[in-house]
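Task: fold both queries, return tokens.
Query 1:
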Amino acid sequence: MLTSGLQIYNANPVFGGREGWHFPPIGLLGGWLAGGRHWHFAGMWAFSLNLLWYGLYILISRRWRHRYVGGNDLKALQLSRNAKRRIYAWHRIAYTAIIPILLLALLTGIGMYKPAQFPWIVDLFGDWFALRVMHFLTVPLVLLFALVHSWLALKAGGDPLVDSMFFGPSPPPDTSAD
């Protein structure tokens, strides 16, 4: 989504108009405006369906009670001397904060894609330019979330925890006598 979005940006930069700053073409996806839009929309469908599936899973499994920030987490940040408990509280704050950011990216993207069908979305942000800026600003927020989340994971469990996110849990050590 990032590389195709930057390809779309290059066709009509948000900041500075057509003479504005452009991203270098290396690493951009799509080759031109229409190609970038095709890749962006394909990624949007995968992203949207994944977000929908995650939302349903959280609701059905009732994990939302333990996954997102609550009063206990805010208390832990203020009072707890347990470093791990504070890290877990920051994790929940990050998980809670990313949901409205992702929904904002989706809403602003729909508003840009179909402004005639959803003029209320454009009106919600004031005008077309403000809508584009808001959509563009969700990118650094998601990247910031990824960095903070990774840093917190390293602090909470180190390399074994991060490795388990990508490769699954490590097998338990063999304790049988040879």
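Query 1 returned. Query 2:
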Amino acid sequence: MTANDFRDELDPRFLRRQWLWQRAGWAVMAAIILLALVGFFGTSPMASKVESKEVGSAQYEVEYPRWTRYQHLDRLHVRVLAPEATGDELRISFSREWVENNNVRSTTPEADGGGLAATGPVYSYKVEDWTRPLVVTMEYEPRKAFRSPGEITLTAGELEPVTLPLWSWVHP
């Protein structure tokens, strides 16, 4: 008997199903690798999202995780450089939608003041020199799973407020 004799005895339907299962397995493995590369299962170079805007010489930037976990502390980094700003205060506030889905636990440096706006808390930071970038790190905890959209508004001194979008996927 030769190999060709065995091939003739195999059911063509069985061979077709086997081929389909193999291809499905390859597709699942490729999807898992792709999700890992974009940070779906943890950290990766593509796991964080950066939103930025320039208004005149002022630069506003927010970096936050694209994927996060429910009730897991994560960090949001705010960077502001506004050499034309007058006044000595940076105010950070969030949209109502973001505040309903997330809870800010701490900020570094600690906020110098703040208050409550219609959408939620406002964090205020004293700025002595607007020509040097101010970086604020906020630790927050997602309170709801799945989609976490919202906006952050940054007001540098007396300049017009700048709003940047925030959007994360929260794993349950």
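Both queries returned. Flag for query 2: The mean pLDDT is 87.
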